[in-house]
Request: fold
Amino acid sequence: MAGITVFESVAAMREAVAGWHAAGEKVALVPTMGALHEGHIALVTEAQRHAQRVIVSIFVNPTQFAPHEDFKKYPRTFDDDCAKLVAAKADAVFFPPVEAMYPAGFATRVLLLGPAAVGLEDRFRPTHFEGVATICCKLFTQSRADYAVFGEKDYQQLKVVTRMAADLDLGITIVPLATLREDDGLAMSSRNRYLSPEHRALAPVLHRVMQELAAKLRNRDDLFKAVADAQNAIITAGFELDYLEARHAETLAPVTSLADGPIRLLLAARIGATRLIDNIAV
Ligand code: AMP
Reply:
C-alpha cells in the first residue's frame, strides 16, 4: 500500500537505524504531523543534503493541542503522504500509533524556559510547546538520528527545539530550513486547506504586511509606530490578530529598535476558524 518502508514501532526503526549507522551512514529525521505539502518535501530534500538516510515521522501529537483545538479534525492523508515521500526518495516513514508514544501511565513532560516562555505562541497556546518538546525529545531518542530538520515556518518551535536538543545533550543536530511559500506569498501550511476561497484570497495580506513592516524597519522608521500600523492593517483586512511583534531573532526577547540586534517579525492571526502563523527576518 504505502510503497515505502513504514516503521510502526520504535524497535523496528531502531533496528534499521542501527544497520545504517553500522554501515557508516548518517541518518536525518524530519518530524511532521502529515498532510504533507511542498514545504515538508523541501525538508526531506534538505535532510538528504546532510544524511544518506532520511526518516519522516508522521504523528499528530495529541499533547500539543489544547482541548478546543483541531486535533480531531487535523487532516490525515497517510496514503497521499507516502506517495509524496516515495517521489522524494525518503527512506522510511515512522508512523506510530498514539498508544506506542503515550502508553498507559505515561507521566512525563519536558519543562521549558527561554524561547518557549517569552509570549508569542506561548501566550495563546500555553501547553503547546511542552507537548512539542516532549514528542520531539522522544522522537530524537527513539530514532537516534544524527540530524533533525525543522522549518522556519514555526520559528518559535525551531528555537525551542534547538535549545532543548543542546540543553539535554540529545546528540542530534537541528537543521533549519527557510519557509516555502505559495506564489502569492502565503506560507505553505497543512492548515491552508481549511481556508474558504474568500479567506484564501485574503491570506497573502499577512506576508505582504510583514514585508512592508520589515522594509520600514530597515529604513529606520519608528518601531512602535510601524508595528502598530502593521497590526491595524491586518485587523482592517478582516483578521483577528493574536500577535504581530518584532523580537530578537535568536532569544525572541522583545526589541525596541533596530539596534537591539537581528530582528524577526512573528505573527499569528485568525480568519474564520483557521489560525495562521508566519514570520520573516528584517
Ligand atoms: P507540521 O507537520 O506542519 O506541523 O510541520 C512539520 C515540519 O514542517 C515543521 O518543522 C514545520 O516547521 C515544517 N514546515 C511546515 N510548513 C512549512 C513551510 N511552508 N516551509 C518550510 N517548512 C515548513
